[in-house]
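Session log. Operator J.P. requested a structure for one protein chain; no other inputs attached. Running the standard single-chain path with token output.
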Amino acid sequence: MPERKTKRPGSRPEPRSRKTTPATATKRGKAKPTARTRKPTGRTTPEDSPTPTTRRKAATKQRTRTPPRRRSSASRPSAAEAQAPAGSEPAEKLHKVLAELGLGSRREMEQWIADGRVTVDGEPAHLGQRIGPGASLAVDGRPLSRAPADGCRVLVLNKQAGVICTRKDPEGRRTVFDDLPPLRSGRWISIGRLDVQTAGLLLLTNDGALAHRMMHPSTGLDREYAVRVNGRLDDGQITALREGVDVDGEHLAFSDVRYFNGSGANHWYHVVLLEGRNREVRRLFEAMGLMVSRLKRVRYGPVILPSTLRNGRLRELGEADLKTLYRLLRLPLTLPKRRRVSRDKRAEEETLLLPYPDLPNLADPSDPL
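Structure written below.
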């Protein structure tokens, strides 16, 4: 029998021998590679890998050595965008321009651009691209004219309260586009919008360039509204509305406020706005403690709502008014061949434009549009 070793008193006990498992052996680096163990790939092992500080320095050096990526031709601005002078006509989104020409919806135009069917100045277009008025467009290799095929037409609509200005309504409500005259090509575009409960002047056109220029704030066209309220403003409130009032974090103001007439509790005012923000007229009067009971737009820039035009009826601008309007806005005009909106020739000859001051913020009339 083997001799049993005797322990001295006070001596330390000998450590027990641990059974070596494949897992612990692998951690210690003593186990042989099994069938599941991956073969060496030339990568650095944990023992050879640099410390975190060294790893960060190496990554920094590697990033600085990497050359910057070049922008693809799809993301480069077109010649019209790159050469657009400062202060010129604001660039529009390409898919919006194509939709306003009546080629389809904005979503369909985005798909055309993604499919590579559209070019701008001979280069493939890209999503989100903006173009200037002088850009040359082509679809499927065919040049695209930005002038309406039917000629430039403008309709004056006396919108009724309760009618919405969207092209299609999921609830099936009546829209201003339901009873418009048909076009051979293109589609009617609403120049601005009116709230569902707001009545009065609404302009519609088949010329996207005209709609864009009239709606853009830089053009400086004002809008005049007739407002009926329950109560009357004092002089201090009129001054406050002209100077501006903070409403829901926005500074809102009328450029002009005039008392018109009234009797009893109801009084009419005429107010002028430079921009048509959401419910701006109603919010300003509510800030003065007065509720608006009726709201009607009576003028958009130089275009007025004729008193003889009944609710829900249309009238088209005549040739003389079209020339005056396009000259004021410095836009090229292609006169329509036919205009059969109103059967009343006397009404068509009546001017719907007021004398209007020049617009200094517009591009030079010699610029290509």
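Operator note: The chain has ten helices and 17 strands.
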